[in-house]
Amino acid sequence: MAKQYKTLGEEIWKNRVETISAELFIFTYGSLVTQLVKDYEDYDQVNAHLEKMGYNIGVRLIEDFLARSGWGRCTDFRETMEVVSKIGFKMFLNITPTVTHWSADSKACSLILDENPLNDFVELPPEAQHKLWYSNALCGVLRGALEMVQMQVEAKFTSCVLRGDDISEIQVKFVRHLQEEVPDPDD
C-alpha cells in the first residue's frame, strides 16, 4: 500500500502541481524567519509564531491536497500518516519523509526528513542553534491540515540537522477525533 501512495504522490508532483522556483520559496521563508527573530528577539516566541503560521497554511492547504489528489477518507491514523508522507509532502515540497517509530498503540510516530528544502542555504547562528526550530511551520501545517479532516494531533520537531543532529525528525501524536467544529479564530 505504501508503494501505491508513493506512486500517486510522484504522479501528482509531475502532472498536477504548479510549481514555483524552489530558491524563491526557500529565500522567502528564510527572510520571514529572519524578520521574526528581529521582531521577537525570543526564540520561543519565534517557534510559536512559525507553528501558528504553519497551522493557518495547513487549514487552507488541505483543500488543495484533497482536490488534486482525489484522496478520500483514511481508515486510521497509520494510513493518514502514510498518505501525508508519501502524497502530501511530495505534492507540496517534493520530498517523501519516512514514517517510523510507531508507538505500540499506533497513535504516535515520527516523520524522518532525509531532506528538507526549507533548510537549504541555511546556517543557524550559534545563539539560535539550540533554541530555534527553523522549520517549525511544518509542524503547524500538519496540525492545521489534519484538524480540518477531524484529527487533532500534536506535532513537534525532536531533532534537526540545522541544530547539529544527525537527522531531522518530527514527532506526530494522535490526540483524538474531532466532531464537526468551527476552527478557533485565535489559531
TrEMBL record:
It is found in: Endoplasmic reticulum; Golgi apparatus, cis-Golgi network. This is Trafficking protein particle complex subunit BET3. One of its GO terms (biological process) is Golgi vesicle transport. InterPro entries: Bet3, NO_sig/Golgi_transp_ligand-bd, TRAPP_component. Its main location: endoplasmic reticulum. Keywords: Endoplasmic reticulum, ER-Golgi transport, Golgi apparatus, Transport. GO terms for cellular component: endoplasmic reticulum; Golgi apparatus; TRAPP complex. Belongs to the TRAPP small subunits family. BET3 subfamily.
